[in-house]
Amino acid sequence: MSESGYHGAQVARIARVAGVADGTVYLYFKNKEDILVSILRETIGEIVTLSTLLEGDHPEPLKALHKLIEAHFQTLGQNPALASVLQVHIRQADPAIRAQVAEIMRPYQQTVARIVEMGVVRGEMRSKLDLRIARRMIFGTIDETVNAWIFTGAKYDLTALIDPVFDVLMTGLTGRNDYDREGKE
Amino acid sequence: MSESGYHGAQVARIARVAGVADGTVYLYFKNKEDILVSILRETIGEIVTLSTLLEGDHPEPLKALHKLIEAHFQTLGQNPALASVLQVHIRQADPAIRAQVAEIMRPYQQTVARIVEMGVVRGEMRSKLDLRIARRMIFGTIDETVNAWIFTGAKYDLTALIDPVFDVLMTGLTGRNDYDREGKE
Amino acid sequence: MSESGYHGAQVARIARVAGVADGTVYLYFKNKEDILVSILRETIGEIVTLSTLLEGDHPEPLKALHKLIEAHFQTLGQNPALASVLQVHIRQADPAIRAQVAEIMRPYQQTVARIVEMGVVRGEMRSKLDLRIARRMIFGTIDETVNAWIFTGAKYDLTALIDPVFDVLMTGLTGRNDYDREGKE
Amino acid sequence: MSESGYHGAQVARIARVAGVADGTVYLYFKNKEDILVSILRETIGEIVTLSTLLEGDHPEPLKALHKLIEAHFQTLGQNPALASVLQVHIRQADPAIRAQVAEIMRPYQQTVARIVEMGVVRGEMRSKLDLRIARRMIFGTIDETVNAWIFTGAKYDLTALIDPVFDVLMTGLTGRNDYDREGKE
DNA sequence: CATGAATGAGACTTCATTCAT
DNA sequence: GATGAATGAAGTCTCATTCAT
């Protein structure tokens, strides 16, 4: 059920999109907060898992970053309704939800943090990099890219932006613009 | 009125913070959407104007970028309640608002676009830069930085992040990490 | 089924306690009202029958009153869940139920009425007794005693109150406080 | 507002009877529980206060009992809608309300307890009286009398039952049936 | 101009009831 | 006969908006 996506945050609309009656939603979720939070948790989990799978067991920071972007854009790119929920509806004022969002995002943020830390340790990223800022650049850029995609109607292929986004982030992180990713794939 | 800030998006609270009665708000604004949109417009206008003032009449792309970040963080940094409205409450599901947001953001986005275009033309930024992606990296990084600041309680000085954010963006845009901004100020 | 008691008036819980599925309940009862009304009817019937059995065929008004209290407190005292349904859930605002309750209570009220009338005729109760009021004192005192028992958690033995309640009622009805019940049992 | 009475426990009906819109109710009460509890508290307070006023400063237990019944029946007798709320709607299954009812009834129950204790101490009531049971007989009889009045449509004058109810209670409490109340008034 | 009490549409949620299996 | 997932009517409550003062 939660995969089918929603293009509205009202329970009635969620139920309608899912093709069930209003009350049916409450057989599977405790309340509205639970619905949104479940969707977020599931999607973030999927992105993190997928990025790890793609990455394999030879972790290279830049490759891992590329895989994360890939996983993120692929997961949301094939489901605009889901993306809409994550980008728009979950970011509402309800403090009860907002409090949980940070916690749910932690695996994602940890993945990002690990990438950056590893990159600095290995010397692949600039040593004077502020880790906090780096994390925010990565998530902010990815998030804003998805945002823009959603608000223009999700008309183009989001995965086409994987490489350009990776490129600009990599450059910001490494200070080099000559990373030859192609040779490694 | 709209400068006084809000830490909630309910009209009653807006009125209370502004020190007027609920009904009085409707003498100045058409409806709630109008309030939020006005705040956004005013704030964005302020940021753009301030960044232009700071920039002066000798436009240099990187300097302009720094001024934009400065203007953005200074404007929101001294008014967390206002920032909260922009980051949280304005991003609601109401499609009527969302439609206007893009238009209001245009001056800001144009400023960003001008900076990037100028930077590429002048050779200060990488020629293979995707302009669209660059714009999203800039706004996304700045926005996410403000977001994180708000959600951790706006406890630290946002303006302290001007230089680190500029640094990471500049590197991503130029491919160089040796920009000596200090020598010019 | 209806003997197994309930500590909630929701049909789902009734079904769970009875060990059947929700829908099964509707094979035996027309609707929820029917369930509650059936429980009431059965329980009242049981109390009246039991009090008659205890009383035997030599009806003496005071003894009959004692037997009624005995039957009432014994029936409910061993099944707090059932008592809870009768004292709490059946007294809901639904006028459709309320209308039936009076009718179902009639055998009980008739028993009470018969006791009082017989008592007056036989000269064992005060002649100036208002029959209506006497009936209400009897039922009201018994009912309130069960009520208090339920709302304090049904922690003590309800049947221990048979004699004290009988004592106070008998005194109110006879004007004498020297009825030596013990000698007759 | 809370004096106007209600003949239904739905907030919408309460609002309708009070002649206001649904939302208006919430300007004066926190929630539905608050409405019912407020009515109960106010009415119980009124009965207790009125009975004290009637009683004057020369407390005599039996006279005090008569005044309590008088206050109770007068208060409810002139407002059947209010009585209906107290007798029917407040006794619903909602445990949150039920928990508060006992506390709100305390002043009333304390008044009753004081009367009985004083009566026993003064020797006007039977020494072997079980105080707990006596309290329940008093409240139970009064309550059931009001109940019966409500469920038969509140068609007769409730205050006409003050003396008969007092008579039966007094007899039950004193063991005498010759109390000459008239000589004292 | 300003007020703020009142409004009422609409949101979330519960639960008695149904019906395909 | 039995099931229990699904239903959807109806209830409580919020809050943007109005208008008599």
Describe the protein in words.
The structure is a homotetramer of 185-residue chains. Chain A is built from eight helices and no strands. Chain A has a single domain, classed as Tetracycline Repressor, domain 2 (Orthogonal Bundle), CATH 1.10.357. By secondary structure, chain A is mainly alpha-helical. The interface between A and B is large, with 40 and 40 residues. Chain B binds a DNA duplex (21 and 21 nucleotides) through helix 1 and helix 2.
Key descriptive features of the protein:
homotetramer; mainly alpha; Tetracycline Repressor, domain 2; 66% helix; disordered C terminus; DNA-binding; HTH_TetR (chains A, B, C, D); DNA-binding (chains A, B, C, D)
Topology (elements, then pairings):
4 copies of one chain form a homotetramer.
Chain A lengths: L10 H8 L6 H4 L3 H24 L5 H17 L2 H8 L7 H27 L9 H21 L10 H13 L11
Helix pairs in contact in A: 3-4, 3-6, 4-6, 4-8, 5-7, 6-7
Chain B binds a DNA duplex (21 and 21 nucleotides) through helix 1 and helix 2.
Structural class of chain A: mainly alpha
Give the mean pLDDT of chain A. Answer: 85
Major sheet size, sense and barrel closure of chain A: none
What is the helical fraction of chain A, as a range of percent? Answer: 55-70%
C-alpha geometry of chain A: elongated
Series of secondary-structure elements of chain A, N-terminal to C-terminal: HHHHHHHH
- Cα end-to-end separation of chain A: 36 Å
Q: Largest protein interface?
A: A-B, 40 and 40 residues
Q: In terms of per-residue confidence, which ranges of chain A show pLDDT below 50 for 5 or more consecutive residues?
A: 1-5, 180-185
Give the CATH level 1 class of chain A.
Answer: Mainly Alpha
Oligomer: homotetramer
